[in-house]
From TrEMBL:
This is SDR family NAD(P)-dependent oxidoreductase. SUPFAM superfamilies: NAD(P)-binding Rossmann-fold domains. InterPro entries: KR_dom, NAD(P)-bd_dom_sf, SDR_fam. Belongs to the short-chain dehydrogenases/reductases (SDR) family. One of its GO terms (cellular component) is membrane. Residues 7-181 form the Ketoreductase domain. Keywords: Oxidoreductase. It comes from Oceanithermus profundus. GO terms for molecular function: oxidoreductase activity. Coiled coil: none annotated. PANTHER family: DEHYDROGENASE/REDUCTASE SDR FAMILY MEMBER 7B, DEHYDROGENASE_REDUCTASE SDR FAMILY MEMBER 7B.
Amino acid sequence: MATTRFRRVWITGGSSGIGRALAQHYADAGARVLLSSRNAEKLEEAARKVGGAAYPLDVTDPGGIEQVAGEIWEREGPLDLAVLNAGAAFKRAGRDDTAENLKRHLEINLLGVAYALDALRPRMRAAGGGTIALVGSLAGYVGLPRTSGYGTSKAALAYYAEALWAELRRENIQLTLVSPGFVKTPMIAANEFPTPFLHTPARAALRIARGIERGVFEVAFPRRLAWPLRLLRALPASWRVALIAAGERRMGGR
Ligand SMILES: NC(=O)c1ccc[n+]([C@@H]2O[C@H](COP(=O)([O-])OP(=O)(O)OC[C@H]3O[C@@H](n4cnc5c(N)ncnc54)[C@H](OP(=O)(O)O)[C@@H]3O)[C@@H](O)[C@H]2O)c1
């Protein structure tokens, strides 16, 4: 039986995949669950399933996020936990990784989180504190071929979390970075690369929730993927890029 110290939990990207599994986890643990994403119909259905409430929004719209945060505080009261999980991975349109592709990823995966943080931080500070989890990815650990848009946005998000951690802690706001490996969700359904150590959304949600509950800075899983990537990251960059290129050649990449 799941338990949680959080009474009011807001999850962006709560209509699908990891967000939806987290919603189920926190609802089962007795929390009031508030969900956000763009498709209002899908969101309503997800919220109904967990006995929670739907607050549709697009994370790329700072005004919309500010408005939803205001509504949540007014109707529900201060949040104990916000999981900023909404994210996207776009296929590149042609042969090249373009600036346009990078921009789309940064808008959702980085700025979408930063806008939400702008709305949450003053409110949580005024309420005496809170917890905010940012969902990044192991893909941000090293520069992987053919994923420069997505990977750059997740690497930047990890930097952002690290840079803000101490400052937020002084305001009694616990910041946790979540770095999952592969999770079986619609996001990776059309993935062309191998997806080793694939987790179900429910198993991923359990690992994420346990880490957030403990108040650690980073929840990274599976360890079998996280550790080799950490070791790769610790190498001199010129060795790392050569090793990654050799690995890609072996896997038949160009
Ligand atoms: N699956 C993996 O293997 C994996 C691995 C590492 C990290 N992650 C990260 O985990 C998070 C959740 O991914 P997932 O795999 O659960 O993906 P998913 O099943 O595709 O769910 C993505 C969620 O984000 C919402 N969303 C997308 N763009 C949005 C926007 N502009 N504004 C508001 N909501 C938006 C989607 O709903 P709407 O489309 O209706 O808005 C949906 O609820 C992402 O940050 C992803 O990068 C996933």
